[in-house]
Amino acid sequence: MKNHFGFTLIELMVTVALAAILLTLAIPSFRTMVLNNRLVTAANAFVADASLARSEAIKRGTTVSIVANAGGWTNGWTVKLGVGGTTLKVADALKDTVTATAAGGVTIFTFSPDGSSSAQDKLDVCDGRTGETGQEISIDFSGRVGTSSVGCP
Which residue range(s) make up the domain with 141? Predict the structure, then answer.
């Protein structure tokens, strides 16, 4: 009699059924992780560019601005020397359903050679979900940029 190695049809069906159950449980949490990652990425991009503007202002000894593109922060921003000077960096519009809105309506932050900011405001980076899923970016008059979690409407 020959020895056969391999899987029986029943073993294969049980394995496929278990894989389907595990995937059904994992996909919703994976989607949440992807959405949270998009929010954090958008917030980190703004924080990095605001930090770039501040450090360039200190390094160059002149004002450097981060300006919202036409239509607001959701449509991206530009880092410029002064208000209308040379463009240092352009950020693309935020992806998918991610939005960024300034609580006080500020559309430009100008950093002085001492690192201070001309405006103080908070940007809320949110998507279509509600609850504790957003990121709040705050810039104060000292030029300090910080982030925290915030509930989105």
Answer: 9-152
Q: Is 113 a member of any domain?
A: yes
Q: CB neighbours of 3 closer than 8 A, spacing ≥ 6?
A: none
* Phi and psi angles of residue 5, each rounded to the nearest 5 degrees, phi first: -115, 145
The pLDDT tens digits of the residues spanning 99-148 come to 898 989 999 999 999 999 999 999 999 987 777 788 999 999 999 999 99
- On whether the CB atoms of residues 121 and 139 are closer than 8 A, the answer is yes
Alpha carbons 100 and 40: distance in angstroms, whole number: 12
Q: Are 50 and 91 in contact (CB under 8 A)?
A: no
Q: What is the pTM of this model?
A: 0.81
Give the CATH number, domain containing residue 89: 3.55.40.10
Does residue 1 sit within a domain? no
